[in-house]
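Supplementary Text 2. Reproducibility record for the structural model of the 209-residue chain.

All settings were left at their defaults, and a single model was retained for analysis rather than an ensemble. We include the record here because the model underlies the residue-level annotations in Supplementary Table 4.
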Amino acid sequence: MPILTVSRLYGSGGSEVAALVAKELGWSLLDNTVVDAVATRMGLTIAEVRDREERVPSLVERLTSAMAMGSQEWASPIAAAKRPTDEQLIEVTRHIIEEAIARGPVVVVGRGAQEMLAEREDALHVFCYAPRKALIARTRQREGVSAEEAARLVDSTNKERDQWVRLHWERDRRAHENYDLSVNTERLGIEGSAQLIVAAAKSRFALRS
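Retained model, structure tokens:
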């Protein structure tokens, strides 16, 4: 079953590119709907899942999780809440992605999909990136924030995503050798990037134009 994963730097417009690709190919799109599905299955709020996805837990979160797994004689409010572990969140996400794949061709955005599906022969892996200056400019325009706040969002979000992939899969998220196609969205634009990916997918999966 054809699968296309889209990994992206924050600010590159990767989600917008993926949406255009899915629409052009007529495939299902898994992006923020994954968050909704994970929240429903785990009995969490959408905000709780969104706050934890693609983000390495803080030192306090790691300590309280460890204490919850160990002695029950002392427990903080966070530990007492028995929040699901990152591994449990990832496993539920994996099931949701696999179920979507079973229903038909799909475009999956982020959420570790490239790493989860790295060994599948029916997957095409794409990475959307852009120079830092362009990432900041797009974020500033999209979020309506100052240049300083946009830079902070770009740097912190991409760092957290890099660390998350390294922690759970021991892979470099930005290494181009992990992808079949890397697309510079500043040079090609959102629509141009989408068209290039569509052409690659049609070639890879022998789809009719």
